[in-house]
Amino acid sequence: MKQSIAILTGGGPAPGMNTVVGSVAKAFLRDGYRVIGLHGGYSALFTNNPRTVDIDFLLADDIFNRGGSMLKMSRFKPTDADFENNFNLAFFTENNVKLLVTVGGDDTASTANRIAKFLEAKHYPIANIHVPKTIDNDLPLPESTPTFGFNSAKAQGTIIGTTVMEDARTSENWFVVCAMGRSAGHLAFGIASACHYPMVIVPEFFDKTEITLDKIVNMVISCILKRKIVGVDYGAVMISEGVFHSLSDEELAKTKVNFTYDAHGHPELGKVSKANIFNNLLEERAKELKLKLKCRPVEIGYEVRCNTPIAYDLTYCTRLGIGVKTLYKQGCTGCMVYADANGSVKPLYLKDLQDPATGKIPPRQLDVHTDEVMTYVENIMDYITPADYEAARKLVPNPEMFDLYKILNW
Length: 410
Description:
It contains 16 helices and 11 strands. By secondary structure, it is an alpha/beta fold. It has 2 domains: 190 residues, Rossmann fold; 181 residues, Phosphofructokinase domain (Rossmann fold). A 7-stranded mixed beta sheet has the order 3-2-1-4-5-10-11, sandwiched between helices. Strands 7-8-6-9 form a 4-stranded parallel beta sheet, sandwiched between helices.
């Protein structure tokens, strides 16, 4: 029987998914392998009737530069009971599958490792290679290497963010913009810095103080006050949705939102408008301070997940896809494929990246104390400093409350 590989996509979409799948398929088809695509992420491996598609060269060539994912995705997370009772081992044996390729983020990578260990325990050793993706850019790749999809999402987000800022100038409004980023502020900071937003708020800023809703709103007020002082009565602020993951239960209760949670225990932030929550809090605070303010909420999330990948990700994802075959031929398994700055492909072993206690891969945080971030904070962002207290006192009685460095305890 012809040897096969199986490939699935898990989690949420990112630009470049099809580029990886198409490139993996082309590389293995050239060596005579059958390439089986699995629909529904990991759920396909825990049912007797998986939805599959044979990926031939024509299909691989047709999809490689498209946004979205031809293979339907899900966030299905198998339980221990699923492994014990529902795992479809027959799919691997009957189709002579020698390699499972998974494309996804940290949760997908962790589940891939569980499957590889399970198959080994069942005496059906199968290679497993993971391709790291996420628009959040929060997988711990070496040398600040981006996860695929991040640069395309940032580019699309910048188009949206620039239009919003132009609307702010034109209408003399304020916009509260929230960008995706479950655990880290890479995407929010990347878009905001590309658009010259005068305030960006990411969870990593709160490394020396507890994060609260009041502090977040005060940072926005700080920006508004500073721009009013210099005669600019409009602007846009960018807030990373990741701040919600750092809020205490008490603080979350103040939002008056009943969050639901996905299979991995994460709040399903996509079901609520974070921008609207902060916009409402800002309007309430501005009214208390008697600040004249027009503000509107804008969400940047689903709009940047399925856009056509930019040239960077088309090239990068092609290299990663071909790199899967390179690592497989070298006998690598239980690893992520990684391409360094020179394009050389190397394995990153999941066991070396995982937290020994939880088995999960910890997210890569935005390092806010790098020159890249701090020079933006110091030269582009607008906020109250001690030098502004006298002028700001004409607008609010207590300008010290809105001093950015005091808020963050920097």
